Amino acid sequence: MKAILALPILAAVAQAHTLVRSVYINGVDQGTGVGIRPPAFNGPPNAGASPFGQGSGYQNSPVRDLTSPDMQCNVLGDIPAPDTLSVVPGDIVSFEWGHESRQSGDQIIESSHVGSVLVYISPNPPVKDSWVKLFEEGEYASKAWAVVPKLTGNKGVHSIRIPAGLAPGDYLLRPELITLHEAEVAHTANKNRGNQLYMECIQVRVGGNGQVTLPSGVSFPGAYSYSDPGIVYNVYYTQAGAPPYKIPGPTVWSGAAASVANPSLIGGKKGPLTVSRWSTWVGADRTVTVVGADGATTKSAYQPTLYPSGGMPPPRTTTTTTTTTTTTRTTTTTTRPPVTTTQGCNPETVTAYVTVPGETSTVTVTVNGGSQTTTNGGSQEGAALYGQCGGQGWTGPTTCRQGTCRVSNQHYSQCLP
């Protein structure tokens, strides 16, 4: 699990595809890959010229199959990122896309890849029909599209504002590009062509005291169909009198904020701007390969999971920060005295500071009704409620102090009530 969460966000040289490489909040870069669930590479970093050889894998390919679980958060997007970005209603969140790197000369995406830019939001973790559209833009002038030339002209950056009054909690933002350069035929009719969709999921925690909840939305997969005119569309030829291009999916939520311009970047870009090597990939045969720090290789079938086991509704907030001898990310942990918290019938957020042998964790748990008690004395064994309790490569606790360890997918198990 740790190897998968450590996936680098920067891709190898490939076709002129793209992915989200960083997120800004009110113009401040949060750092390369921070808060982002990166798509998996499709092959290993082959030996050769620095930093990798010819034929190396890459992670910026589109999703074409509208029925694939990858439509939700891309390949391996069901695995949580190790960090979550903090925002409040009214904040401007900007997404930076890039082809090969975050450097100024990056192509962003091939100029032929015209199409639409969209952003969805869902509680985290998502459930059925939980995705709500916050933004969309397609052909805004004749032959002028939101992806090319607008996104590319803005250095790969587009922005949304967190809706006013949005209730606090954990959410996923899902920026998406729908490109049309091969969309004159459905992918089901020609496996070498069809609409190309690029998406990632970004983990955000909304603060404040808002009370606006998201309405029922759509599911991924399921939101788009090959019969949608915005999915199968000939961008090179339009018959006289034909209706304008229609962006697929639901309408933009009435509670979404108005479109917003990109704020100026404050303080420059943070984190590595160029490619680094990787240790996890999903091959063409849908096999997940993980190379450990000791060079040992494990392989398993790729079996993505759309929703947590049992379809549980998402907790209001869940944060786990871990420091071990194998962790590469620097973590600051505040030491608190042992404390016991008890939550009654009203659903509110309960915070517990927990010590687990071999690692230090800070866990925030919301209990959705009922009475729950959590103690951080350090003598209890097992993972906390909503904590990780298993998965491929996981070396932490495999039992739960509360609840049952349920398998979400082969890479991630979680303690659930």
Q: What is the element layout, followed by pairings?
A:
Elements lengths: L1 H4 L13 E7 L2 E2 L6 E2 L32 H4 L11 E3 L4 E7 L16 E9 L8 E6 L1 E3 L2 E2 L4 H4 L3 E5 L7 E11 L16 E4 L1 E6 L73 E3 L4 E5 L5 E5 L17 E5 L16 E4 L4 E9 L2 E9 L4 E4 L12 E3 L13 E6 L2 E5 L1
Parallel strand pairs: 4-13
Antiparallel strand pairs: 1-2, 1-5, 3-13, 5-10, 6-7, 6-11, 8-9, 11-12, 11-13, 14-15, 15-16, 17-20, 18-21, 19-20, 22-24, 23-24
Structural description of this entry:
Residues 36-64, 301-342 are annotated as: Disordered. Residues 1-16 form the signal peptide. Belongs to the polysaccharide monooxygenase AA9 family. This is AA9 family lytic polysaccharide monooxygenase. It is found in: Secreted. By secondary structure, the protein is mostly beta strands. Helices cover 3% and strands 30% of the residues. The protein has 3 helices and 24 strands. The strands form 7 sheets. Strands 3, 4, 6, 7, 11, 12 and 13 form a 7-stranded mixed β-sheet that branches. It has a 4-stranded antiparallel β-sheet with strand order 2-1-5-10, with no helix packed on it. The radius of gyration is 21 Å and the shape is globular.
